[in-house]
Amino acid sequence: MNTPPIPPFCSMLETHWPLPFHLPGISLVSARFDAKQLQDEDFESWGLPRPEGIRKRQAEFFAGRICAFMALMNATGCGHLPTANEDRSPCWPPSSIGSITHSHGHATAVAAQSRHWRGLGVDSEQLIKAERANRLAEQILTQSELDRYSDLPQAVYARHLTLAFSLKESLFKALYPLVGQPFYFHDAALSWVGEDGHATLKLLRDLSTEWRAGSELQGQFTVEESQVLTLVSIPH
Questions:
Q1: Both 140 and 160 in a single domain?
Q2: In which domain, by residue range, is 38 found?
Q3: What sections of the chain are H helices per DSSP?
Q4: pTM exceeds 0.90 for this model
Q5: Same domain for 93 and 136?
Q6: Lower Cβ count inside 10 Å, N or C end of the chain?
Q7: Is 134 helix (H, G, I), strand (E, B) or coil?
Q8: CA distance 108 to 202
């Protein structure tokens, strides 16, 4: 399809790589958006169905799909608006893979050709406030992670908790299409988080005959102001 004008509710798309380690063949596109400026006719101009729900959810969906369109254009030479699977995850066109995230007026998508990469998962989150960290920790962290982080200052603890949450979300997005079954925060643990933005996650239970407990996957992250961005990538 020809690329329609970017609707006023969404800023100009930015193709960039804010993460610390560049990965060949992957395109990352992001945008800012303001749900209050979204108009019904914007969906018509892009040929997108208007999802049910409040305006904020509709704007998140739209901005994420626009970013995905451009990421696919960059990675494959063909722009495409991902439809939705029955489980509401994005349905990527043949021979391509990708992932979409949105948080507090930011949308980001990554895409690549599936002959180069098996799985991609991207996630963005606002830093969890220190006063909420203790309430959320047991839902997100395994016991070994809780023990490892227990002596950290509260602000550092909250940052690590946000990274763990976001990296595990990215892990799910990257791995779920390959294993075909859901898994949860306590089914994986962070075995390494480096100051350079590199992270390693380890599976704690078998998810398939290939992806067994003990399997390690690589991720990376960046923290800018109060926003965390993480990516888990699975090569061939």
A1: yes
A2: 14-115
A3: 40-46, 55-76, 130-140, 143-149, 154-179
A4: yes
A5: no
A6: C
A7: helix
A8: 25
Instruction: Spell out the per-residue pLDDT of the chain, length 236, in tens.
Output: 678 899 999 998 999 999 999 999 999 999 999 999 999 999 999 999 898 899 999 999 999 999 999 999 999 999 999 988 888 899 999 999 999 999 999 999 999 999 999 999 999 999 999 889 989 999 999 999 999 988 899 999 999 999 999 999 999 999 999 999 999 999 999 999 999 999 999 999 999 999 999 999 999 999 998 999 999 999 99
Please check whether residues 198 and 224 belong to one and the same domain: yes
Q: What domain count does the chain have? A: 2
Do 98 and 76 sit in the same domain of this protein?
A: yes
Residue 144's CATH number: 3.90.470.20
Look-up of token digits 């997100």: 140
Among left, alpha and beta (phi > 0; psi -120 to 50; other), residue 77 is left
What is the Cα 69 distance to its own chain's centre?
Answer: 16
Look-up: residue for tokens 């369109």? 69
